[in-house]
Prior knowledge:
Elements: H1 8-14, E1 19-24, H2 33-42, E2 48-51, H3 63-72, E3 77-82, H4 88-100, E4 105-109, H5 130-141, E5 158-163, H6 170-185, E6 190-195, H7 199-211, E7 218-223, H8 228-237, H9 245-253, H10 257-272, E8 278-282, H11 290-296
Parallel strand pairs: 1-2, 1-8, 2-3, 3-4, 4-5, 5-6, 6-7, 7-8
Helix pairs in contact: 4-5, 9-10
Amino acid sequence: MPDTINSNFEYKMQNKKFVITTEIGPPKGTDTNIIKENVKLLTGIVDAFNVSDNQGSNMNLGGLAVSHMLVNMGLEPIFQITCRDRNRLSLQSDLLSAYVLDIKNILVLTGDYTTIGDNPKAMPVFDLDSVQLLHVIKSLEEGYDMVGNTLTKKPVFFRGAAVNTEADTEVSFKLQLIKMKKKVTQGAQFFQTMPVFNIDKFKEFIERANRLKIDVPVIAGIQLIKSEKMAIYMNKFIPGIKIPDNIIARISSAADKVTESIEIAAGIIKEIKPYCSGIHIGAQGWENYIPRFIEKI
Length: 297
């Protein structure tokens, strides 16, 4: 496997520096001003920007274009690439395109099902899943496409994958650990978790991963909850998320929801920081509060 370090984000992760990332959600349309405003606000505060790929199965501007825009601004994107919308030809082509556009950090996802998004009649692809796509990336880095054809030049990526530490049964908990180990075997170099709300489960998950010798850095997802309505919606429609009732009650009764949300998230980070290599902040419209949040933690 290639061992070249070709991004600052990778350097920090490989050298056990605590990293902070956040999400850039491409807009529904071609107006990129909000992206420019958010990244200007957060430049120098976060280490990399995770660019979502039709997040929640909602049609938006492509993540490849937005990632390239960030590169041109001197910033580091983490390009999400999901299997939901592409067949194996398109997946390989987009990966090669990303490398040519100087996008080196990749987060490989299977993707949410299309029925939860704003185009529920869209035909899902799922030609590959995330484990298979990691294997494909390994082949590309060795100089071959998926069927063994030689590439004219090999790409090199920093390869990430997702894991859910909030599994609600012992069976699903074990399944996440098994999938995590498979992803490492296929080349995952870092993991990003779903938003963490259950501190004890997160600690147990990391401890069990360590016992299985899964020695790969984990970035913990941290979600700023804007309202009771948002929490209930996420519990109902976002797979893998379970926001506890006590957190929903705190947000619901808070006079200052921004301050309360920051306090909740900061409390989670304080408990889990020794168990992870960084945090990924989900703000969804509250990007202007991220500097205040980071100052708090």
